[in-house]
Structures are given as structure tokens and as C-alpha cells.
Amino acid sequence: MDTAARSLPSLPAGQASVAPATVRHARPGAQHARLREQALELLRQAVAAHPGAVVQSSSLGAEDMVLTDLIQRHGLDIRVATLDTGALHPQTLQLMQRVRQHYGMDIEVWQPPRHAVVEFVARNGSDAMYRSVQLRHACCALRKLEPLGRMLQGRSAWVTGLRREQSAQRGTVQARQVGSDGRAKYSPLLDWSLGDVWQYIADLDVPYNPLHDEFYPSIGCAPCTRAVTLGEEQRAGRWWWERDGEKECGLHGQRPPAQADVPAAGSVS
After folding, report:
1. Residue 190 — φ and ψ, nearest 5°?
2. Which pLDDT does position 254 carry in this prediction?
3. Residue 139 in contact with residue 231, Cβ under 8 Å?
């Protein structure tokens, strides 16, 4: 079976409603120990090749929490940063504080310019993302791509939690890629399965978003994320109303943002 089409594992009737994500999904593969070592080694390579210039762009999802734990547990010189789009779930915002407390660390938080968000909503409405793919892309460009660009300024490398298993679009990603801007992108978890991710979280008591316990395997902005049902693909809950096309926000794709709807970079408000 194509890994992009794999669905979430199921439990016997009556158990799925009460079992936490660590119980439902923790299933280490035969190469689990080796994958952990490879991920750590790739992170170390990133630090060696880009001293003081590496950032983890974290969505605070399960994969990114594994990477943050590896970074903090091994004292790697990699900053951890996240995007506060202004439309996140309360549980995601609360997780930021839990991570700070758990690791005794700081997290960079990057936001879109407040005035640009207000103008976009006034012009297009708060439900713009549901009305057309073009408007949804414009919203993603404003709330995600613009602050990401500022996050990456002055940095020659970034770390992501991409896995090939997540979608067909991510199946061709390489562990280290260099973009057209010359910036290196490292994805240490590419070959991890969902079971490997959750086994790591369970083994090391890594903090995670409680929405994962409520069948949210992939968590983005609140208006654009829903829970999945047993048998659905891992990213089925993202932009679920879009029937065709590439269901990505542009952070990890090659599609350029809709420039007319993306404000110039400004200070974080």
C-alpha cells in the first residue's frame, strides 16, 4: 500500500473513545532505535554546518514535539520557534506555555502583522477560507508564510517535522534539501511512522497537544482543522472541504504565495 494512503490504526469497539493518543498510536517499527539515532545525527550535522543559524519551525504537533525534545535533551544549538497565526486552538496556545515550563526554555513566537489580518478579514470576511481555494491560500500566506519569512531571516538552515508517510506531496521530500534561496531544510523524521512518533512521546513523556487525544492527528488553525474518523488519512482533517488539489498551506511546497494578499513584512504586534 502507498504510504500516503495509510489510515490511522484502529482499536476494538469501545476503546477508541477513551484511550489517549499514546496508547492508540505508539507502535515502534523494527528500525525504531536506528531512526532515533539517525534523527539525532542529522540534527547534529545541521548544527555543525550552520553554527548559531539553525531554527526549528515548530507547529507544536506530535512530530515537532519529538524534535524539540531531541534538541533540548541533547543540548543542541537550535532555536525553537512557532507561528501564532491568530487563529490557533486554545489547546495549542496552552501547549506553548507547557513546553516552556517542561524544558525551561524560550520559544520564539512569530505573528502576522495585526493590521494586515484586520484588513484581510474586513475585506474578505472571517469565513474567507471556505469560499475559495484562492482565498484560503491568501489567508495561509498572510498568517503563515509572511511571519515564516521573518523567522528565517538571518538563518541559513531550518528544521521541520515532515514525514513521507503524511501525504503524497511529502513522499518525495529529502532529509536535507537546499532551497532556491540557498537555505538548507532538514527533516530528521522523514522515515518515521506515526507509531514511531508516538512511541517516542510515550517513552520519554513528551508534552503534546491534548487535541491529539480527540482524534486530531494534524493540527493547524482552528477554522481549518477537524478531527478525523477511523479509516481516514492522517491529514484528512486539514482543509477537509477542499476536494481536489494539494492540501498544503505553502510552508513546505513550491507554490508561491498570492502576493496581492500578502502584506509587506512588519514588526510583530
Report:
1. -50, -45
2. 42
3. no
Q: Which helix (DSSP H) or strand (DSSP E) does residue 103 occupy? A: helix 90-103
User: What is the pLDDT, as a whole number, of residue 7?
Assistant: 41
pLDDT, one tens digit per residue, over 198-223 is 999 999 999 999 999 999 999 999 99
The answer to whether the Cα torsion of 41, 42, 48, 52 is positive or negative is negative
CATH topology of domain 23-207: Rossmann fold (3.40.50)
Pairing outcome for strands 54-58 and 157-159: parallel
The x, y and z cell numbers of residue 103, run together, are 524544558
- One DSSP character per residue, 140-198 reads HIIIIIHHHHHHHTT-SEEE----GGG-STTTT--SEEE-TTS-EEE-TTTT--HHHHH
- Each domain of the chain, given as residue ranges in start order, spans 23-207
Contact 265, 107 (CB under 8 A): no
Is the model's pLDDT at 167 over the cut of 90?
A: no
How many Å apart are CA 126 and CA 134, to the nearest integer?
15
CA geometry: angle at 210 spanning 206 and 215, to 5°?
115
pTM of the model: 0.83
Choose among 49, 99, 97, 101: nearest CA to 76.
49
Catalytic residue among 139, 140, 224, 249: 249
Instruction: Give the end-to-end CA distance of the chain in Å, rounded to a whole number.
Output: 47
139 as an active site residue: the answer is no
What are 134's three cell numbers? 484562492
Q: Quick count: other Cβ atoms within 10 Å of Cβ 19? A: 13
**DSSP calls for 196-265:** HHHHHHHHHT----GGGGGT-SS--BGGGB----TTSBTTTTBSTT--SS----SSSSSPPP-GGG-PPP
**Predicted confidence (pLDDT) at residue 19 exceeds the cutoff of 60:** yes
